Amino acid sequence: MPSLNAAVQWNNVTFSVKGKTIIHNLTGTFYEGKITTLVGPSGAGKSTLFKLCNGLHTADTGDILIAGKEIASYPPVELRRMVGFALQDATMIDGTVYENLAMPLTLQGKDLSEEKAQELLQLVGLPITISTQSTNDLSGGQRQKLSIARTLVNRPSILLLDEITSSLDRVSQQDIEALIVRINKHYGTTIVWITHNLQQARTIGDYTWVLIDGQLIESGESSLLDEPENNEVRLFVKGDNS
Ligand SMILES: Nc1ncnc2c1ncn2[C@@H]1O[C@H](COP(=O)(O)OP(=O)(O)OP(=O)(O)O)[C@@H](O)[C@H]1O
Question: Which residues form the ABC transporter domain (predicted)?
């Protein structure tokens, strides 16, 4: 494997909620500038990993290093700027596309320039004329593109995507997949993508993690999904364990 830097390094991380261990002694790396897809059965702890990564949860034991520095050493605002987060339901405030796009800066008492707004809309493939429209009029695919553009306002170096295409039709899904690859190439953004779609995980990912019951059971180049070494992973990929 070529020598790659760690965008996020997990060392023996354990996390519990109300006495129940959700993440078990997890060690692994999300590589800088690469796309890692994260798969596993429902309840495996995938979303929990994201919350540990952007400071919404704190690990009980172990270390999480972001760009080589212990996560707790980052001021929360800086961490949220570095680690962008997009979710399946692409929640919007009641208002225009521009107001939603500007929200991360508005919250910091800053403005988003018209020029920057147009650049971001173009990057995600939305017409710039959409800027003054209400977000209530957008399709599911357009909302998701806006949600991704909004995450990019802070220029995150790491982008966490949680099931962002699962409620979209096939065409919109492919559109978003191409967009994420474009963002990865254009900005060198490290992408980590939770998906239940194993085909997507295989084709979009450079690397894949398979998480089962809070344990990282198998990880490596995404081709591992073709012929997993681990029996539990083989069953999961065959659909027997999802
Ligand atoms: N706040 C919480 N309180 C109690 N249990 C929780 C909490 N958050 C998560 N869990 C539990 O932690 C486990 C992992 O949940 P998580 O959402 O990370 O899984 P997931 O792999 O993302 O699942 P899915 O694919 O269904 O989204 C589950 O058993 C869930 O019930």
Answer: 8-238
Cβ pair 183, 191 in contact under 8 A: yes
Determine which residue's CA is closest to atom 7 belonging to ligand 1: 17
- Tokens 């339901």 map to which residue? 89
Contact (CB, 8 A) for 182 and 31: no
Phi, psi of 5 (to 5 degrees): -80, 155
17 Cβ closer than 6 Å to some ligand 1 atom:
yes
| Ligand 1 pocket residue status of 43, Cβ below 6 Å | yes
CA 212 to ligand 1 center in whole angstroms: 12
Ligand 1 center to 22 CA (angstroms): 8
Ligand 1 contacts CB of residue 22 (under 6 A): yes
**Residue 188, beta-bridge partner list:** none
ipTM of the complex: 0.91
Is 6-238 in CATH node 3.40.50.300?
yes
Taking only the tens place, the pLDDT of each residue in 56-78 is: 999 999 999 999 999 999 999 89
Q: How far apart are CA 83 and CA 50, in angstroms?
A: 10
Cross-strand pairs, 221? 207
User: What is the Å distance from ligand 1's center to 47 Cα?
Assistant: 7
What's the 44 CA to ligand 1 centre distance in angstroms?
7
Alpha-carbon distances, residue 32 vs 8, 91, 95, 133 (angstroms): 8, 28, 35, 36
SS3 of residue 153 by DSSP: coil
